[in-house]
Amino acid sequence: MIYTCTMNPAIDLYVALDELRADTVNRTIDEDYQANGKGVNVSIMLKKLGIDSVALGFIAGFTGKYIEDFLKELDIKTDFVLVDGITRINVFVNSASEYKIVNQGPFISSKYQELLLGKIRNIPHNSILVVSGSLPKGVPETIIIDIAEICKERGIKLVLDTSVQAVIDTLDYNPYLLKPNEDELANLFGKDYSLSENELIEYGKVLLYRGAENVLISRGKDGAIFLSKDSLMKTTSPHGKVVNTACAGDSMLASFIGKQMINKSLEESLIYATAIGSSTAFSKGLSDLKDIPKLVKEVSIKNIRGE
C-alpha cells in the first residue's frame, strides 16, 4: 500500500484574468478550486491511475474538512490528524504572467506531531510512504529525520519530495527515492544559481553515494533526470501552453511510483511520468489524462550513463 503524508495541505484557488492591474477591481474570467498539498496531489493522481493510497497529514477547520471530504468522494482513504486553526488557501493567478500566493497554514503543536508519528509507526512493513511539501508553523525540520528513522526501522520505503534542508540528514537512513526539482537540488548543496545538466547529475550522484537509493530530478520544460546505482537516464518534455505549474512535479512523482508499483519498466515509468507532469502543467489542476497518449509520443528518453 502507498501512504502519502501532507503536513501543510491547502485548498488551491486558481483564477484567470485578462490582465492583473493594481488599485482596481480585477474580475476573473475563470476560476477553479482544488484540494491540494503535494501529498494530497499524489494520492489524487494515483487514484486517477487506478492505484489506492491512504492520505495522512494535518488538517484544520472547515477548509481541512473540505479536503478530507474531497478525497473521500474520490474513494481515497484518509487518516489525518485534526488540529486547531484553519487549513490554508493558496491562490494561483494566471494573466500575462503566472502569480503564486502561498500562505503559511496553522501552527502545529508537538502533541499533534507525535500523533502523526504514531500513525507512521503503524504503517505496515514493505509499504511506500510519500512525504511531500512544506512544513507548517511549529513543526521543526527534524521531523523529516524522525520519519526517515521510523521508516528504516519498520522496513517502509520512504519517498521525499520536500525542500527542507533536513533531507540531507535523512540519507543515513537510505530513503527509497528523493524527488527534488532543479532549485531544490541546488539549495540542498548551498548553491544560489541554476545548475547545469552536468551539475544536476553530479549532485544527484552525491545523494546516491550518501545513501539515497534513487533520485528523480524534475526539470519542468526540460523533462527529468533519473539516477540509481544501475541507471542514469533523462527525458525530454512535450511542448504545450503552460497554465499552472503548481502540481506538475506531484503528478510526475505519483505517475513514476504508480508505474513502478505495477512492475512497468523504468523507461516506461519515466516516459509516462514526464508526460503526465507536462499534462498537469498544461491544465488548471491535475491532469485528466486525456492527452497522455499524444504526449507520451512526444517524450524521448536517453540512457546517459557513461557520458
Task: Please state roughly what percent of the residues sit in beta strands, choosing from under 5%, 5-15%, 15-25%, 25-35%, 35-45% or over 45%.
Answer: 15-25%
The percent of residues in helical segments reads 25-40%
Number of domains: 2
Span between termini: 37 Å
Mean pLDDT: 93
The topology string of helices and strands comes to EEEHEHEEEEHEHEEHHEEEHHHE
Instruction: Detail the poorly predicted runs.
Output: none
Provide structural commentary.
- This protein folds into two domains: 1-18 and 30-159, UDP-N-acetylmuramoyl-L-alanine:D-glutamate ligase (3-Layer(aba) Sandwich); 177-307, UDP-N-acetylmuramoyl-L-alanine:D-glutamate ligase.
- The protein is built from nine helices and 15 strands.
- Helix 4 links the parallel strand 9 (128-132) and strand 10.
- Helix 1 (38-48) crosses helix 7 and helix 7 packs antiparallel against helix 8.
- 35% of the residues lie in helices and 23% in strands.
- The strands form three sheets. Strands 1, 4, 5, 6, 9, 10 and 11 form a seven-stranded parallel sheet that branches.
- The longest helix is centred in the C-terminal third of the chain and has 16 residues, at 266-281.
- It is an alpha/beta fold and 307 residues long.
- The chain is globular and about 55 Å long.
Summarize it.
The chain has two domains: 1-18 and 30-159, 3-Layer(aba) Sandwich (UDP-N-acetylmuramoyl-L-alanine:D-glutamate ligase), CATH 3.40.1190; 177-307, 3-Layer(aba) Sandwich (UDP-N-acetylmuramoyl-L-alanine:D-glutamate ligase), CATH 3.40.1190.20. The chain contains nine helices and 15 strands. The chain has helices at residues 38-48, 61-73, 110-121, 142-154, 182-188, 197-209, 248-261, 266-281, 292-298; strands at 2-6, 10-16, 30-36, 53-60, 77-78, 81-83, 88-94, 98-101, 128-132, 157-161, 177-178, 214-218, 224-228, 232-235, 301-303.
